[in-house]
Each structure stands twice: as C-alpha cells, then as structure tokens.
Amino acid sequence: MGQRPLGKAEPNWSFERWLLRGFNREFAAKILFATSACAAILAVGLICVFLFIQGLPAIGNIGIFNFLTGTEWRPTWTPPLFGILPMIVGSLYITAGAIFFGVPVGIFTAVFMAKFCPRFVYVVLKPAVNLLAGIPSVVYGYFGMVVLVPFVRNHFGGNGNSILTASLLLGMMILPTIITISESAIRAIPQEMYGGAVALGASHERATFFVVLPAAKSGVMASIVLGIGRAVGETMAVRMVAGNQAVMRMPHEFLLGARTLTSNVVIELGYAYGDHRAALIATGVVLFVFILLINALFGMLKKRGDN
Known about the structure:
By secondary structure, the protein is mainly α. The chain has two domains: about 15-60; about 80-305, MetI-like fold, CATH 1.10.3720. Helices cover about 75% and strands about 0% of the residues. It contains 14 helices and two strands; from the N terminus they run αααββααααααααααα. The chain has helices spanning about 15-20, 25-60, 65-70, 85-115, 120-135, 135-155, 165-175, 175-185, 190-200, 205-215, 215-235, 235-240, 260-270, 275-305, and strands spanning about 75, 80. Helix 8 packs antiparallel against helix 11, helix 11 runs antiparallel to helix 14 (about 275-305) and helix 13 runs antiparallel to helix 14. The protein is globular and about 75 Å long.
C-alpha cells in the first residue's frame, strides 16, 4: 500500500518535466527562427538608416547630377569637386571583366564536378574549391601583384596595374561562389529528368547541357548574382592591382588603371573630414543602391524564368 510501482523512474521536478509536459518545443523553435530572421532584417535596416542619414545630405549639397555624372574627383580643390562617374565606370568595367572571365569557367567547372568528374579527382577538386573561398582578399591581392601584374605587363603591355589585371583577379575570386552554388543546383535536379533524356536517345553531354543545366538555371543565376556582388564589393585586392586612378576610361583602355567605388572609399576615408567624408559616405550609398538594383534584377529574371 502506497508504494510506487517498479518501472521507469519519474523525472525530477523540474526542468525535465517542464520540457516534456508544459513547454511546446515546436513553438519555441518557431520563435527562435523568427528572431534570427528579424535580426538579419534589423541589421540591413540599420545599415540603410546609417548610410542614408549620413549620405543623402551630402548628395543634396553636392547635387545629385553633379555627384553622379561629374568626371572630376578633387576633394582638396577650392571649391572641391566630387564627381564619382570615373569610379562608377571603373567598377562596371572591372565587374564586367570578372564576369567575362569567371562565370564561364565557374559554370563549366560546376558541370564537370556534378556530372563528369571521376571520384578520385572530385575528392581533390572539391577541397581545392573550398580552399579558394577561404583565402583572404589581401592574399589574392598579393598574388595579383606578384604574378598577374608582371604577366599582363609582359604579354599585353602597360605597367600591369590595370582594369584587365583587376578583372582577371576578381574572376578568380568569384569562382568558389559560382562553382559551389551551381554544383548544388545541378545535383538538386531529379535524376529522372536526366534518365528521361537519355532514354529518348540523348547522349550524356546533350542531356547534361540541354536538360539538366537549363533546369538548374535558377540556382546558376543565383550563383552569378552572388558572384557579381562579391566582385562589386571587393576592395583590398582591387586596390592592390587596379592602379587606383580616378580618371574616366573608355572600353578600349583596359590596359590602364582605374578606381572603383569601394577603393575610393577605403583609400581616402582615413584622412577625410567634413564635406569630403560626407561625399565618401554618399559613395557608399550609391554602391548600396547598385547592389540593391542587381538583386532586384535577379528577382525579376528569376520570376520570369519560373513563369
């Protein structure tokens, strides 16, 4: 009488019983994930607020037309000139060059790793790609100074610090992003699609490039957009090899130096003050809007592709 039956011991008061009976773990997980998502949104919002509060008054004082289309950046003149068009053009040229060199190589490498690569090669190639993603920007920049700058100077002309050199270096730097995401997108395509194409008489190569790769275009496009974002936002490596000349360049002047928006900020922000500092923060606003436009364009392309 009054003795507890033998068997599994009842949990101590406490936290254990509360977890098992009184607390909804699924609800707690939802709260945790929602909080994490809100933290990311809050971070982006704070960056937006800081940039626009600090940068928009400077753009208003300079004049948006003079700021965006001015071809002279002379912050020490009287009156100072704050025209960022040379940096916008330099960023576009170097980013376009990085896309030209990096995107085809990255996509073909991803296709090779997903559909053609032997196992004994894959176990070496995959860690190498991951290692590329972990190399610091300054190491890439040093490699560019020691290897790419002399290569361009000896084989193409100029002094080596040029748009071409920066494009080659950035093309290398965006490879891990494009390869990793594109490979995952290709592997996510159901094997039945490939098998159906082969059953209809397509060769392995034709089924891969005309069935599997188009089906993975959403993921491939995402990898390209992220690669473009990396190229646009890169600072240190570009500063070390691009020449940093705030001068307007034409497309055929790819062997001459140029300055990007990011390089312009990092070079001068350390000693800037007053209107000069405000103009540099306004340059960051333009760069931020540029990234937003790239993401919006990707969203439009993705929606059109899904339809």
